[in-house]
Amino acid sequence: MHRKFHGLAAIFAFVAGACSLGPNYAKPNLDIPATWRDGQAQAPIWPSSDWWRGFGSPQLDSLIAEAQADNLDVAAAAARVRQADAQARIAGAALLPSVVLGSDVSRVRQPSSSGSSGNGSSGKGTPLYDATISASYEIDFWGKNRSALEAAQETAQASRYDEQTIALTTVSSVATTYFQILEFRDRLTVAEQNLASAEDVLDALRAQVEFGTQSELAVAQQETTVATLRAAIPPLEQQLRQFIDALAILVGQPPEAVDITAGSLNDLSYPTVTPGLPSALLSRRPDVAMAEAQLISANANIRVARAAFFPSIQLTAQGGVESTALSTLFGPAGILYSLAASVTQPIFEGGALEGQLHFEQGVYDELLQDYRKSVISAFQDVEDSLIAIQKTAEQEELEKVAVAQAQRAFDIATSQLRAGTIDVLTVLNTETALFTAQDTLAQVQAAHVNAIVSLFRALGGGWKSGGDNDA
Q: Which of 11, 67, 246, 249 is most buried per CB count within 10 Å?
């Protein structure tokens, strides 16, 4: 017995020097630009966690609250987080002993000295009672189980980042879809107003025909304009309805439960956000953090694959009691125990171990490129959003001037038409120019607010890693 305990003590001393086979994770070298393309040195105004409130739309605030509570993609992502956490607990179980409690009652028949079965004439045998506790434990000398746990934990962390990415995407999609709804409402309003103006001009031309101051050709031309404007309305109504239906899906509701009957792009405020330095972006994007967590998990899996080449050391212990009578079951004479240690060394696996190691290394190399791509894409998203905000803001101001000039030209033309001092072709031209300018302005306004949403999303939408305190 003393030899057994000495042997176990030697094994535990051996375990105390347990090692990891590597490789240890090292953050990849990245080519991070020193500043953004425009080179402007601005103090960063990072998005807050409720960045969408900067647009000043209570209706948008309400829709985003609904999406955060009921969006089905976010709910599915939360379920994946719970699955990943459970997998991490399963992986961690290998670092703890496995303990099993067992009990049994049996009958034992022993032969008598005459060769026949003893224990009385009944032939039922002697009852044998036993209760045992068995424990087994794999010594994680090579770090295989610790690395497997780390891989599972990083996978669980990646699931959390993925959940945050989906939540950010959902909020951004609600905002952009809502703004598209407002765009088509504004364009529909413009189309209806222009139709009403064209019908007024048509009525004026018909009156002039009766007095002989206009021709039937002028009326026919204006009737064509009215018909064209009227035909432009149904497609706008269709697209408006489709965007409302898309919004319903985002907030987790059936299409019939959601409708947007008010609101205009002209009612929105334009929040300000500046991106700060590119180097700070990587801690502001949950998708980048997710890509790195997957990379760390893959690195841990390489260590698991390497450890599989080395011996596995297993400790087992069993203790319990055994007796032919319940009254003496827990007496000193009935106590049983055993201690054992075993070492298993893989000798020939047909290339499976080497193949698994190469596989895990290949996974790591793939995820490394995915991580680098996610970083480059993050920089691109910000750059694209910055230039989009700048140019759509410029275009919006220019388009407002164009609308004002087109409105003035149309007002002058219709006034002269009623006075009989201008031909109808001039009126038609100014009418078309006004409708085009107003419709384009609504589209540019939508592009401007959506560019702002894109920048919020590109900067991580208010999310930041736990160690980031530079806001």
A: 67
| Structural domain contains residue 34 | yes
Q: Residue 161 in contact with residue 420, Cβ under 8 Å?
A: no
Phi, psi of 103 (to 5 degrees): -145, 155
Q: What is the mean pLDDT of residues 246-271?
A: 93
Residue 262 structural domain: 2-97+140-309+352-458
Q: Does the pLDDT of residue 122 top 80, yes or no?
A: no
| Buried/exposed 23-51: b ≥16 CB within 10 Å, e otherwise | eebeeeeeeeeeebeeeeeeeeebbeeeb
Q: At 171, which CATH number? A: 1.20.1600.10
DSSP state of 215: -
Is the preceding omega at residue 28 within 30 degrees of 0, hence cis?
Answer: no
pTM for this entry: 0.82
Structurally, the chain folds into a number of domains equal to: 1
Q: What percent of the chain has pLDDT over 90?
A: 52
- Summarize pLDDT for 39-85 with one digit per residue, the tens: 555 666 778 889 999 999 999 999 999 999 999 999 999 999 999 99
Q: What is the pLDDT of residue 401?
A: 97
pLDDT of 394 > 90? The answer is yes
Supply the mean pLDDT for the chain. Answer: 85
Q: Does residue 152 contact residue 73 with C-beta atoms inside 8 Å?
A: no
Residue 107 vs residue 169, higher pLDDT? 169
Compute the average pLDDT of residues 238-259.
94
3-state helix, strand, coil in the chain (%, to 5): 65, 10, 25
CB 322 within 8 A of CB 334: yes
